[in-house]
Request: fold
Amino acid sequence: MGQGVHMQELPGIGKRYDIDLGSPTQRISVVVRQGHIRDLYVFTSKGDEPTAVLELTSEQALKLGAVLTGTFFEG
Amino acid sequence: MHADLIGLGGIVLLAGLLARLGRRYGFPTVPCYMLVGILLGPGTPGPVLIEHPEDIAILASLGLVLLLFHLGVEFPAEQVLGSGKRLFIAAGVYIGLNVSAGLALGFALGWGTSEALVIAGALGISSSAIATKLLIELRRLTNAETPIILGIIVIEDMFLAFYLALLSPVLNDSGSTADFVVDLLVSFGFLVLLFALARWGARAISMVLNSREDELLAILMVGLVVLVAGIALEVGVSEAIGALMIGLVVSRTSLKERVEQLVLPLRDVFAAIFFVSFGLTIDVGDLGGVALPVAIAVCVTLLTNMTAGIVTARLFGFNQRAATNIGLTVLGRGEFSLILATLAITAGLDDRIGPFVALYVLVLAIAAPLLASQSRHFARFVPDRLLRSRWRYVQSETMSTSCMHQDQMEITETDIDVCQQCVADGGTWVQLRLCMKCGLVACCDDSPARHARAHYEDEHHPVIQSLQPGADWQYCYVDEILVREPLGRSRTTS
Reply:
């Protein structure tokens, strides 16, 4: 994996990717489930509970990813 | 037999509707299906949709077979087998505690030895489906303890296979010891045969199954699975285990993913019929008679689960919160308990087993999600001294971003300023590393001899620290990351 991204297997569910944002309070984890649903876990506080959890279908995840990587130019 | 489509359709529809209602409040689906079966079956006063449960027996057994086949197909053997000794110890403790408590309770009830063995399994093996759904719904997929919970569940599934293999000769009880031994040997022989098939015959199976068209793959797959399950039943091993093993074989072929996707909807439908059909056999009047044993069983299961949770947390250096999360997430009982009860009913064991397991599953199905979602309140009752006091850092922190071996960082300073192995061999080195477990000083990976890594490979001491002046870092060989303060913790302590 690239720098600052760590992958961990979740047996029976899928794979979890942790993206280190270089701050003690900010981090993002993405869980790619076997059924192709992606869970986006966002942590913005020091607490244990995630600030937001989004359940994305693979299509929604694709859109989000395209925007984030800058390959989506429409509009 | 004439097909009573109205009855079947009605009961499946109602089961689905009740399950949908239940899901809205976070309850698992399996007990809902069963409940509809109980309420609309011949054993309960009121409307009866299916008069004779045996009318749908073949559909129900197809459900059982597909349930276990899917379990086998998606079994993540590599991930779990490679995940280390600690996980196996944790799972062993969980299974050992729960199954032996179930066995003790089974014998205490005095229904008989075979009955006790069935109860041990029904109480001991938790529901993978319930635990997995709970983790997703409670938004705990990134918690530190989650991979451990999932690992325990998978090892439980594996245990189930062996337990079924052990149980079927017991249930076929023919009276004499010699016959029993023969049955046991046949049972395990069949298992070994399928294991061998899994190891070497995956290509042959994939040649039989392979088709580019999903339609044909689905048909070939169902045919093969039902055939193998039927043969398993014929030789005295249960159909359940035959299906599970052929699933394991298929999981080793390149068709694994397609089969997984194709079988999933089939499994869901027929498994629901299986659970409904189990409910149909339950007479609601019998539930009262088993209320007390069920109450005791539920308390025992709660106790053993919490104990196992604490032991696991201790092993992995987790805090109270994780301990209760582990104990309460795997509390749910469902499909496996019902499978074992069905086997018991088919084998003609004590009549009370059916209602007992049904009520037990129902109670835990309601209790597990409620308790698991409130686990942080229970965490307060876990005394500190039960856990490792030094490393309570993990909390709900993602395990992967903070190395798991910080409890082995014992030595932080040394006076040695040479790589002694290099000195002995007459070699040179670039930088020095300190093994934080035993204090050995050795040369780094840029040095020709790489003694620090060699030391890790020999001794499995995970964490090293750089001895380079000014360099303030530690590295964990096992997790392959730099060790640092866990994320989410304030930097003031460092």
Summary: The radius of gyration of chain A is 13 Å. The first strand of chain A starts at residue 5 and ends at 10. Chain A has one domain: 5-69. DSSP finds one helix and five strands in chain A.
